[in-house]
Amino acid sequence: MRLGLVLRPGEEAGDARAAEEGACALVAVATDRGGAFPAAAAVAVATRHVRIVVPVHLGADHPVTLAEDVAVLDNLSGGRAVALVDTGDLDAAAAAEDLALLRAALRARPVRHQGERWRVPAGIEGHEAPEAVEVTPKPVQVSVPLWLTGAVAPAVGPAAGVVVLAGGGVAADPTADVQPALLDVGGSEATLDADRDAVVALADAGATHTLLRAPDPTVAAPLVARFLIPEVGMTGFPRVVAETMLPPAWPGPARYVGGPEDRGAWRDGEVGA
């Protein structure tokens, strides 16, 4: 299972750097809808490798507009965007339409849609509307990952072929190729055993990617890197290794490590040459 951290609003860039330094596979923006994409853009600039999970709220905004925001983030991050799609207050039928249009707009093809809520192109009277529209820029990824959450997500996701975020009463699907989850953890040395038990239980339940929500991600990141990631990412990882103090840095070029009797010769380049 791959682990990530939920970022604190207003602290996204610093939290994301700490998570990346701690070998986390992904980070998640938790900022409200008005600032989610600017915050995710700051994370994209501050990091190089982690996946960036950005909330996408269905309901008020046009799905094509939301797709454009996701596509811009995907280009800015070099193909690292993941859309956490929240169905909000929509009923199942409305959420299914918005989700379908969002997915269509994120594909590298022109979009046409005629539904109960949306019409693409709009076909405004007196305008020469095209027969289809395209989102620009195109996402870097051939298929941007979509994870679904919200009250009607369990009813909408399976029918649409979109994975539903586990947690908060939603169980993980052990048969899914990708099963994301959200888990609240203490994120400190005092809560390490409880955090580890909860993470391992989620892995056993079938989660493949878990976002950990801790009070302070900068405190949690080193603990996640040393104690939790090896536990769920390396089968049979010897826990004694993780719980041992790190050895001091060896002086000089790391060509050879011998016993104390070899130290002087090693420094002079006589050993391991």
Number of domains: 2
How many helical elements?
Answer: 9
Topology order in helix (H) and strand (E) letters? EHEHEHEHEEEHEEHEHHH
- The dominant shape is globular
Share of residues in strands: 15-25%
Q: What's the helical proportion of residues?
A: 25-40%
Q: Which architecture name of the largest domain does CATH use? A: Alpha-Beta Barrel
CATH C-level category of the largest domain: Alpha Beta
In round numbers, the mean pLDDT is: 88
The end-to-end distance, rounded to whole angstroms, is 41 Å
Strand order of the largest sheet: 8-7-4-3-2-1-10-9
| Low confidence ranges | 255-260
| Class derived from helix and strand content | alpha/beta
Number of strands: 10
In short:
With 273 residues, this protein is of the alpha/beta class.
Note the topology.
Layout: E1 2-6, H1 12-21, E2 26-28, H2 36-46, E3 51-57, H3 63-76, E4 81-86, H4 92-106, E5 113-114, E6 119-120, E7 146-149, H5 153-160, E8 163-164, E9 180-184, H6 192-205, E10 209-213, H7 217-233, H8 239-242, H9 263-267
Parallel strand pairs: 1-2, 1-10, 2-3, 3-4, 4-7, 7-8, 9-10
Antiparallel strand pairs: 5-6
Helix pairs in contact: 1-2, 1-7, 2-3, 3-4, 4-5, 6-7
